[in-house]
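User: Here's a structure from my thesis project, written as structure tokens. My advisor, Dr. K., wants to see whether a designed sequence matches the one we expressed. Can you design one independently, without my sequence as a hint?
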């Protein structure tokens, strides 16, 4: 086992160096938001998807486009609107009157990186079409099935301050996202740099630092990162505490309507492995679980009106769970 761990550590160090190059390139182009970019890379390594919540103008589009450019991958931005149709995302068949046959017109979902901008502005049928593609990694167009490109990552955005003309994502669909990240305003120093770049004609071109083939290789290695049985037990107890808070003596008992799904357990392990990989380790430690717990559980733990009245957030509940559930 020690020899296997040593080999995993060696590979993890090599891949961590590549990921450091990728993060450095993102930081060269994008001012601030380093933590969000790191979490985006973790999600990419774990082969998941991201729901990003924040007000407009915080470089969300630039972030994922820069990531795609740094990997020489294809990128598409889809602006979600109330009149959008599922076929506008997945594609459709078009009749060619000259040949008397139908040809398949693939939609924008057939790219490596997708920005689903303001996903809650589109009706449920359109949201479902996107989320089904995220889950199945394939699209059916009028009876014909097409696999999606790899790597494949969807970053959907939501504006937290607007509710008019929006369609709230159902819990069953929001569960498809690996992470829910909250993006904040830049600092004063960062804002000065942003102003300089955008008012003085300073253009920084993204350089290709990795290939999609290397990312796929790293994603496959991530599955091999070692998570001990004690780590799996720890994750199981964390998720169980969201479902049965009374059993763990949580102060917020009675404020949780629904706990996290089994997807939470899976993504806690996979993203913790990715966090360990970024740290140059081929094995998971409890700190890796804690580092990703909020992002994995934030949108999966549903609080009731009582919690809202008390001013208690989902992050507060997760903090309490991590404090009470003993780490191995």
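Assistant: Designed independently from the structure alone:
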């Amino acid at each position: 086992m020690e020899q296997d761990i040593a080999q995993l550590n060696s590979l993890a160090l090599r891949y961590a160096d590549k990921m450091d190059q990728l993060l450095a390139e993102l930081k060269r182009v994008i001012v601030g938001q380093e933590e969000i970019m790191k979490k985006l890379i973790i999600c990419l390594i774990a082969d998941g998807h991201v729901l990003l919540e924040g007000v407009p103008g915080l470089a969300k589009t630039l972030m994922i486009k820069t990531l795609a450019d740094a990997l020489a991958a294809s990128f598409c931005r889809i602006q979600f609107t109330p009149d959008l149709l599922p076929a506008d995302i997945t594609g459709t068949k078009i009749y060619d009157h000259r040949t008397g046959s139908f040809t398949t017109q693939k939609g924008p979902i057939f790219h490596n990186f997708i920005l689903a901008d303001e996903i809650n502005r589109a009706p449920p049928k359109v949201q479902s079409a996107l989320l089904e593609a995220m889950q199945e990694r394939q699209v059916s167009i009028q009876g014909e099935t097409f696999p999606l490109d790899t790597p494949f990552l969807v970053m959907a955005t939501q504006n937290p301050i607007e509710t008019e003309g929006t369609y709230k994502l159902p819990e069953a669909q929001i569960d498809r996202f690996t992470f829910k990240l909250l993006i904040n305003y830049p600092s004063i120093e960062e804002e000065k740099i942003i102003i300089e770049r955008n008012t003085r004609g300073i253009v920084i071109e993204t350089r290709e630092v990795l290939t999609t083939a290397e990312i796929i290789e790293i994603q496959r290695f991530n599955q091999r990162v070692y998570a001990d049985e004690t780590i799996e037990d720890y994750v199981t107890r964390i998720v169980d505490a969201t479902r049965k808070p009374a059993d763990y003596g949580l102060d917020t008992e009675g404020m949780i309507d629904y706990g996290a799904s089994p997807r939470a357990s899976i993504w806690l392990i996979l993203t913790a492995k990715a966090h360990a990989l970024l740290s140059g380790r081929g094995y998971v430690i409890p700190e890796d679980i804690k580092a990703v717990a909020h992002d994995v559980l934030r949108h999966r733990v549903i609080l009731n009106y009582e919690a809202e009245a008390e001013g208690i957030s989902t992050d507060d509940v997760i903090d309490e769970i991590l404090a009470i559930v003993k780490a191995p």
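When you compare it with your expressed construct, this may help: The domain at 225-324 is CATH 1.10.8.80 (Helicase, Ruva Protein; domain 3).
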